[in-house]
Amino acid sequence: MSVRFGGLLAVDGVHLEAEAGRVTGLIGPNGAGKTTLFNVITGLQAPTEGRIFIGDEDVTNLKPHKRARLRMARTFQRLEVFGSLTARENIMVAAEICNGWSRDRVDPKQVTTAVLERVGLRAVADDPVDAMPTGTARLVELGRALATRPQLLLLDEPGSGLDHNESDVLGDLLLDLAGEGMAVLLVEHDVELVMRVCEDIFVLDFGRLIAQGPPADIQANEAVQAAYLGAENEELVEHEPEEALA
Amino acid sequence: MNDVMQYAIVGLATGCIYALTASGLVVTYTTSGIFNFAHGAIGMVMAFTYWELTVDRGLPEWLGLIIVLGVLAPALGFLLERLLMRRLHGATVSTQLVVTLGVLLALIGLASIRWSPTEPRVLPQFFEGHQVGILGVNVTYHQLVMVGVAILVAAFLRLLFYRTRLGIAMRAVVDDPELASLNGADPDRVSAASWAIGAQLAALAGILLAPLVTLDIILLTLLVINGYAAAMVGRLRSLPLTFAGGLALGLAEAYTIKFLPTDMVSKVRPALPIIFLYVVLLILPQARLRAGRLVTTRRVPKVASGRESLLGSGALILVALVAAQFLSGSWLTVASAGMVWALIMLSLVLLVGYAGQVSLAQMTFVGLGAFAMGKFFGGGSLLGIVAAALIAGTVGAIAALPALRLTGLYLGLSTLAFAQAMTVMFFKDERVFGYGGRLAVNRPSILGMSFESDKSFFVLVCVVFALAAMGVLALRRGRFGRKIVAMKDSPAACATLGLNLTFTKLSVFALSSALAGVAGCFYGALRGQVGSNDFEMLNSLVVLLLVTISGINTVTGALAGGLTFGMFPKVQGWLPEAIGRNFSYLGAGLGALGVARNPNGWTSDLSPIGDAIRKVLHLDRGDHDDPTSIDLLESSDETQSGEEVRELARTSS
Prior knowledge:
The complex is a heterodimer.
Chain A: E1 3-5, E2 8-11, E3 23-27, H1 34-42, E4 53-54, E5 57-58, H2 64-68, E6 72-74, H3 87-101, H4 108-119, H5 134-146, E7 152-156, H6 164-179, E8 183-187, H7 191-197, E9 200-205, E10 208-213, H8 215-220, H9 222-231
Parallel strand pairs in A: 3-8, 3-9, 6-7, 7-8
Antiparallel strand pairs in A: 1-2, 4-5, 9-10
Helix pairs in contact in A: 3-4, 3-5, 4-5, 6-7
Chain B: H1 2-32, H2 39-56, H3 61-83, H4 93-114, E1 131-134, E2 137-140, H5 141-163, H6 165-175, H7 177-182, H8 187-209, H9 217-233, H10 239-259, H11 262-268, H12 272-283, H13 306-326, H14 329-354, H15 362-375, H16 382-400, H17 408-427, H18 430-433, E3 438-440, E4 445-446, E5 449-450, H19 454-477, H20 479-489, H21 491-496, H22 501-527, E6 529-531, H23 537-550, H24 555-574, H25 577-581, H26 583-593, H27 607-616, H28 640-651
Antiparallel strand pairs in B: 1-2, 3-6, 4-5
């Protein structure tokens, strides 16, 4: 797909696939077009060119909520939590919305309890989300996405704002989810996390795909290193801090 | 043929004014992100000021123009930006809307005090009496001035935006305020300048338009609705399209009048701007759902639990029973009216406070309720109340339907247009409220009980409010409530979870309108009869503003807002006549300016009292077991942390 904003080609002929049962990484310097791709996939942004498929179904002309009903869920890089609700309510409302359109009759309360447990939010379940530190709020978004029992999960920097231990736990969770057959597409700056959990990695730079392959290949790839070193210092080597600007 | 040309000239000339007005709106909206509902009111005030200077005090026209356009208008725009609009960056659309509507009403109120509406005034045309023949058509000099000014303004704006430092900074701020400020543009300065220019354009349009219509406060203020429509054509961004839209609307208006049968013209003419606005809104493409908006959320007040709302309602009824023994005469009327207003405002808590949708037409639904109650099932029965709910609910859903796919601001505009259209085409129709425009509405008798006496009616209204409040709170605590709050907090996230936003909005609209319709039954029954003036669009604004001032997120806010409004007639009596007569606009308008400071309203400042009561009654125990607890006396600590999350969310991008 391609996306053009006025004169800027934000995404330039990128072909991307996320397979069931594995975590696929999508990395690249800031402004490479990762979030734009997510928006195109979920229907918040129309592509200038190209098509999007979920399974065999062409969803390019479907509205966001219709796509979500094909079992796709996402999180947001700029948080889109339901700030006036608690963590529990955030997840519960997702489960309820999902019950509204899906045929599976599960108890939203049970789903909520299970998800809270799984993403490790039990202790803060009844705190309002707008008072939470950003890392925790990201976990709420992850939990909310999981509450709709997706088969394709798009995560936009779920690890930023998490400390080293929390990031490890998140990695385990992602591997578990993939192990259960879910397709996980992960945008993440925490390179260590990406290298650990992803089987396949796509690298974007200035809207173009510059590399694709398993972690070892990507780490050795000169184009990738050049792209990163040109944009950010030693990003591939070190944990990247929160950048100041979009 | 000559006729066709004549109408073309008239249409183009008025079209130029619409373009002027609309370009002012676009300039302020694009650079400050705030849609200025007070735009027309600014033009109105400036036209009156110009009248006072030139006609009343006899200054020469050129001096009057310099004073108004060169000094007063930009100063007003500048002050508005400094004192109010600057605080609204990152506020929700409904907060922005309420504050600019506050300016609108305050200006109407102030103008009515200064220039008594009963006194006729005429502002002469420029070069009165002079005209010239072009292509066999008589064109007045004033019309030429209108066209000339519009062309000059268009050229000026073009130069400003493309040739000056300020203009380029303005465009940069539109594209990306953060990036622009990094590159040395000062968004605050740019925003102040744009408000000054916007006010100048409003003044210019007002001065040019006033001689063609009467110098009437409300008329001039509302004429900008046509400007709104033109601005929509330009999608609030493109100035060339805005100008084209203005011209097209002017022409369309002129030709509609020409080709319509004469008996229809008087009826349809006042509704034309609204019809145009509606049509433009319908043509507009669907707004994209945006993720990553920077909304600084304030902590929303806590919601009362079932037990708490039951206790609160019980307490309210108890107080009502006691108060009914002590109140009499006009104070009893004040209290009853207050409770009726509170019931109306409760419908706005559901719609605006919880679901984040905007309605500037709530009194229209109140009117439909009163109409149903008065017309059907004997004019005061339980079935009448049911009919009121059904009719108002259905019309509410239908009215909202076209605009639901649009975002908050557009929804607000379309409800505004709807309210105006209903007044002109429905309520003012003699067949609706009967001969003389007054419809009798009786007090209901329910299950054989009559509520004819003032005391029993007061208690009845309190009971109805208590029940409705419990219902609204239960709704909020339940599945539907979570859904609408989620939709308010992040429509984009809701959509990606599979929620059909249109349907959800539609249901909350229907519910809220139905509740307003029920309130309308009691509104009518309290007064005994209703007329079209009761349900005018400006009254809807007053109600919305007053509930926002006291707290639109809470039942407590509705109660406080209602009682405050109930007090207005009393307060009016205490004030000097000129101020008293305009007190509802003035009070609501000036009060709404405070919403810029605290969007949760003043009742949220009372939350410590609520907490204390909760503690005394040991109601805080169960809080953690019941995640969805609500309260009649909500607590709302506006912590910094809410903003912290957004702040971090932004910096981590």
